[in-house]
């Protein structure tokens, strides 16, 4: 079944880029994918409506080609406003107080505002350790949230968006925001007694990367969103960030059989991956 990309490119453009779309119910919007069946749900997920601000003309003529997922419709404005409110609540009422609460622990372990800046090599080592700690804590807390006991009451909120947009990276139940978003990011600096410069750089990087992983576009020279995008579509695959623990636990076996896996690379050119690695013909029908 065909669908209409937001930029309304001609049919020939669509055929050239071999953009395919999943079936979706008329009138269904992002946020209506229930995710109740956490076992390999093939639900009719819908894509987000995103704006490309500055991309090469080739892309701006065919933004659909940049999508990690070809699913697309418009975002329900009511759902979007509700999501923005939740994200602001999480940032202002949870993240900020949590950092204030943990500051004395940081100060006790190693004053984050000390005069000496860390050396560049130490900073790189810290970043590597932060990333590993984040991978471990995020993977296991995320898998726990997919347990039926916690999924319905907590994590289902984040999965209302089966084809997310950037801001949905922090659209989560408050408990999930503490356990799965904040703690995995903040434990590293606590353990390492890091300087404020390392902490702010790490938090900024983590926020940018999680936003990219939810944005729905596979943009050149930026991290691939395919992995987490697949998680939002299938629910029981790709729980981690790096993919290391998914590989060890075999929770990426389905993903590895898809075209999304082949596209899960750093895009080093301006040809959309939906053109260079198109879906197989049978999926396009
Ligand atoms: Zn997500
Ligand atoms: Zn999940």
UniProtKB/TrEMBL annotation:
Coarse class of the protein's main subcellular location: membrane
TM helices/strands, residue ranges: 87-108, 120-140
Residues of the Fatty acid hydroxylase domain: 128-251
Sorted UniProt keywords: Membrane, Transmembrane, Transmembrane helix
Name of the protein: Fatty acid hydroxylase domain-containing protein 2
A Pfam family matched in the record: FA_hydroxylase
Region Disordered, residue ranges: 25-46
Organism: Saguinus oedipus (Cotton-top tamarin)
Domain of life: Eukaryota
Protein's UniProt keywords contain Thylakoid: no
Location within or outside the cell: Membrane
């Amino acid at each position: 079944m065909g669908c209409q990309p937001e930029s309304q490119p001609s049919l020939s453009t669509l055929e050239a880029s071999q953009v395919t779309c999943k079936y979706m119910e008329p009138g269904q919007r992002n946020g209506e994918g229930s995710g109740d069946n956490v076992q390999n749900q093939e639900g009719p997920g819908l894509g987000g409506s995103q704006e490309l601000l500055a991309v090469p003309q080739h892309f701006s003529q065919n933004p659909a080609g940049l999508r990690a997922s070809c699913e697309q419709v418009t975002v329900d404005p009511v759902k979007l406003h509700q999501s923005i409110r939740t994200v602001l609540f999480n940032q202002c009422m949870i993240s900020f107080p949590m950092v204030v609460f943990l500051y004395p622990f940081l100060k006790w372990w190693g004053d984050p505002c000390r005069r000496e800046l860390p050396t560049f090599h130490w900073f790189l080592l810290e970043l590597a350790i932060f990333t590993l700690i984040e991978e471990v804590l995020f993977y296991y807390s995320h898998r726990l949230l997919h347990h039926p006991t916690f999924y319905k009451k907590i994590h289902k909120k984040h999965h209302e968006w089966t084809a997310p947009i950037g801001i949905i990276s922090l659209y989560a139940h408050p408990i999930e925001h503490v356990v799965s978003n904040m703690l995995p990011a903040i434990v590293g600096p606590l353990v390492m007694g890091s300087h404020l410069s390392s902490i702010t750089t790490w938090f900024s990087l983590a926020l940018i990367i999680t936003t990219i992983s939810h944005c729905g576009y596979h943009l050149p020279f930026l991290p691939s969103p395919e992995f987490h995008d697949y998680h939002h579509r299938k629910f029981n695959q790709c729980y981690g960030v790096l993919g290391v623990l998914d590989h060890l636990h075999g929770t990426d076996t389905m993903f590895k059989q898809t075209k999304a896996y082949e596209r899960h690379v750093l895009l080093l050119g301006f040809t959309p991956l939906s053109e260079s690695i198109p879906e197989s013909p049978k999926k396009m029908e």
